Amino acid sequence: MASDLSLDGGMIPRSTARNIDERSELRHASLSSTAVLDYRGRRHVVRLVNVSESGAMIIFPHVPHIGEAVRIQLLDRGHVAAQVIWAKGGRIGLSFLDGIG
What CATH number does the domain containing 83 carry? Predict the structure, then answer.
């Protein structure tokens, strides 16, 4: 039986709209609005939406698997190992494996 581990849509239904941001970290616009994502052996130029100490949100047309390992090159911070934590509506959320400080 094949398993689709990707999330593209509301996997967890909400009865009310989210009123607050539940993340405790500040998100910052990157010094550059683009980055390079190494994904399945290919390099893709992607748009950064925001970056925090522990992750980033990018615009990316492909739907990776949740938990999939990737590397992202942030022009102001270098290469960072990351893991896909969500994908929805042409955007994906990445969690940096070691943070970027």
Answer: 2.40.10.430
